[in-house]
Please model this.
Amino acid sequence: MCANKMTTALVAVIFCLLVVNVNCKSIEHGHQSCSQIKHFFDTIGVTSGGTSLEADQFGQICNGNCCDTRTEEQLIQKSTESFQRIVKDHTQSHRSLWESTANTFRDHVFELLRQSENRTLSLFNTVYTRMTHMSRQPIQELYKSIQSHFLSKISSNANDESLERSVNNFFVQLFPVAYLHGINSERFSGDSSSSKKLLDFNADYKNCLSNMYEQFQPFGKVTKELSQSITQSVHLASVFLRGLQGGAKVLGGVESLDVHNLDVNCKEALLKMNYCSSCKGYSHVHVKPCYGYCMNVMRGCLNLYLGTLNKDWNSFTDAIPKLNNLVTSQDMGIENVIRSLDSKLSNAIMYAMEHGPQIDKNIKHACGNPSLIEKQADVSHRPQNPRMNNQNNPWPSPIHTILIDFMSSIDRAKDFFMRISDSLCEDYRTSQPKKCWDGSHLGEYSHDIIGYDQQKYNPAVKISQDPSGNEKLHILNDQLVNLRNVVLKPLSTHSHMKYDNDKMLSDMALEEGSGGYADDNMNDDEDYVEGSGEGGSGDGGIEPRTPIVGVPSNPSDNDAGGAATTRQLSLTSLYASLLMFVIVLRLH
Model:
């Protein structure tokens, strides 16, 4: 009797399972009717019939019963526009970092020059008091020339010789002032009791001093050394700023690229990844692309879209930290050169004063005895207070501390145009391997993720077009190549310098810890593949897993009653489980 009841129950369960078999699959995989798919398409502005189509009406790409060719064309447009937004959003955030760093670096150099100029003016006002008024204009012109050259090289590639001439002209103009009010200040003091009267050489005598400057060398080696250090440091700083601004400009150009010229294979791959599951009646909420599939589709499209930029971008961004090491170095860094400029100018004057007797003798021999004239002091340029020129104001924070955050992002900037796929597909990494969309059906994605430099082997996107055929991309690529060469040139000039990361970058790396990319993404460009697509073996194969349904409890062979009882309990448990499974399905 009991056996009959159990048999009846088993038959009932099997019947229920047969009846709800389709519904079970639908719930498990998020299957929907074409009318429900139409509602989803309506929300994204795509029109569809909302009814299941005949086989000869299916779209050729998705081959789904809910999408005809017209619907697929709209979905291609949607997927390409989405791709463009993704590229733009990721590029825009990175461009903002380059722009803000460039502006911060430029403003920092401006502040260094402003404070250095104030300190130099204050130095002359307090130490070389008699020279204050006549040296003020040459000093201001010197700093103006440095700033102008720092900016002009960014846009016009101004010749470094022009800055050398500016520094040399400053000392030529300073020479008569130092000779009159420094070397022979007591001899030429005369009657200058009036605060508005100044003594100066007449024009002919000043011309003679200027013409004999190179022969006299009144400031010794200081002038040549200072001219070289200023020119070198300003050149490196301007190239560095140009690199930052140029990098931002290239990224801005990427944002403005048009995806209408995107390769047809990429457009079809984007459609398959994003919408073909819906065309086949699957819910977009429940069905997500496989992680490996997403990576291959996005990398393939990015390669077709921006692939020609990637190599030169890597070379360019590799050079930026090396150039940064020069810009922040003790010998050639603009920080130390500008901060020490007032003391170097003071050393030049002290040299002239120490060698005053010999200089005076040479001048008399070449130019004769001077004749002095009185000139009106320019009251508008007279300092109101000897200590009001910010002499005691603290210097701004050193450059290398300002650049720490940016330098830490440089490693992540490598392969930037391809790494967009990494962040986009990260959400799909946790997809269930046997329930993700592989482009044609639900299941496992057995292909390997293809490395950045091996896209010709990409199974998801066929490479059939030369990306450089895009005119805008071609122009952008030329800009990047030119920018890369500009940045690399000073590195080759100073090839004797070591470009290894300095202590700052080492400390920075320790602070960053594991904040960078995961280890499994660090060598993408070195290997053919990155491992299996969804947790399989290195060759792409996935070993089948055989679930263990039950394990015998080793009942005694002689205990027939015990064995029968165990089997009965097992059957009862199985029936109960099946019934609960059917009830749960019905409730959902």
About this structure: The longest helix spans residues 69-126. The first strand starts at residue 197 and ends at 201.
